[in-house]
Design goal:
Number of strands: 3
Helix content: 55-70%
Shape: elongated
Number of helices: 18
Largest sheet: 3 strands, mixed
Distance between the termini: 66 Å
Strand content: under 5%
Radius of gyration: 25 Å
Order of helices and strands: HHHHEEEHHHHHHHHHHHHHH
Length: about 375
């Protein structure tokens, strides 16, 4: 509805639609074909990458999850524009999404784990689509090629001009950062034009900074969040992105339902898998922060099991005491998978609760007699 009102107001030259500030979305071209040698070349390379990606073991082929992610994308950018994009959901635990010049988009499971609503996911997908609409991949390629050519000629004509070549290299990264800023603004404008609130966009970056703080703190380091990006940074800093997006949302003044409940329901089946991947990253502080965020409405058995696994993996002697408590709480909350009994039993054995540990492991074997580690567990408890 917001999108239709915005289009009508723009057509009539009116400031209406409830937006404190109106904006113009990029012109839309259905069935766009690449123009020029560079763009055709970039599309051919992307086509080959997509052909290989389609058979990758990292692609999640769950129809329900793929349909849902695509639905969020289409509701963000509009049904007409979304038809030009193929989305591949990847089993990759890092926070990321990528856009290719030919309309291929990848959405990583680490992103799905970290955002908490359809609006937050839409903000990232709209950002990636902004790269596609503005042909950033092609222009970035041209910029890098031009700078490389200039540096090569300077290296021949004036081999002592390292400072000038350093400056040119910095311009390549500055060009990338400017593209990211432009994509950020396009993404938040798509959000403002959709039924989702544009205020959700900045929250993605605020939460990412908080996760980085937690990760650094757990490693005994001090997190740094400067407003200015580094000289060789390919993206603006998270702080500057969050600040800019917050200011834009205030200017647009739109409202809407973020879709938190629908997002939680859609991710419920995959959440334990994505949490398991995150815990394997050996980032205790970051993983614990993510679990805390997911438990903002209360700890479920699934979340308690994941937290038990996190402490058990870190493996300090005191961690097994905490892990045993979380395993027990997970079982009390109805987490029924036999692996909770296995984790509880092993944690109890490691904290000198020998008889309790053996009892838990016997229950595990009763519930899962054909487990791959059944013989090992049997020998451990002396069966």
């Amino acid at each position: 509805m917001k999108r239709a009102l915005l289009a009508l107001a723009m057509a009539l030259g009116l400031p209406g639609t409830g937006h404190a500030e109106t904006f113009t979305l990029p012109p839309f071209t259905q069935a766009y074909e690449p123009q020029g040698v560079d763009e055709r070349g970039a599309w051919m390379m992307a086509d080959e990458q997509e052909r290989l990606l389609r058979s990758s073991k990292f692609v999640i082929r769950d129809d329900g999850l793929n349909h849902y992610v695509r639905g969020v994308f289409c509701r963000t950018v509009g049904q007409d524009r979304c038809a030009n994009v193929r989305i591949y959901v990847m089993r990759m635990p890092e926070f990321n999404a990528t856009m290719y010049p030919n309309g291929m988009m990848t959405v990583w499971s680490g992103l799905l784990l970290r955002v908490q609503s359809e609006a937050e996911l839409g903000a990232v997908l709209g950002h990636e689509f902004g790269h596609f609409e503005k042909r950033h991949g092609v222009f970035g390629f041209k910029n890098k090629r031009t700078m490389s050519d200039v540096m090569a000629w300077i290296g021949v004509a004036a081999p002592q001009s390292a400072g000038f070549q350093y400056s040119l290299l910095g311009q390549v990264y500055a060009f990338n950062r400017e593209q990211e800023r432009e994509a950020d603004m396009i993404g938040v404008q798509y959000l403002a034009a959709s039924d989702y609130p544009s205020s959700a966009a900045a929250r993605v970056w605020r939460r990412l900074m908080a996760e980085q703080d937690a990760s650094a703190s757990a490693r005994g380091r001090k997190a740094k969040h400067g407003y200015a990006a580094g000289y060789f940074a390919s993206h603006p800093s998270e702080l500057s992105r969050a600040t800019t997006l917050e200011a834009a949302a205030v200017r647009y003044g739109d409202e809407g339902d973020e879709g938190r409940a629908a997002y939680a329901q859609a991710l419920r089946e995959w959440l334990p898998e994505f949490l398991g991947d995150q815990i394997k990253r050996n980032d205790f502080g970051g993983s614990d922060f993510i679990l805390d965020q997911l438990a903002s409405d209360g700890w479920t058995g699934s979340l308690l099991f994941a937290r038990a696994e996190l402490y058990s993996q870190r493996g300090n002697p005191r961690d097994y005491v905490t892990a045993a408590q979380f395993y027990a709480q997970a079982i009390e909350k109805g987490y029924a998978a036999p692996k909770a009994l296995r984790g509880l039993g092993l944690a109890q054995l490691r904290t000198q609760q020998t008889e309790q540990g053996k009892a838990s492991l016997r229950q595990y074997l009763q519930q899962s007699p054909d487990a791959s580690d059944a013989s090992l567990i049997s020998s451990l408890i002396g069966n």
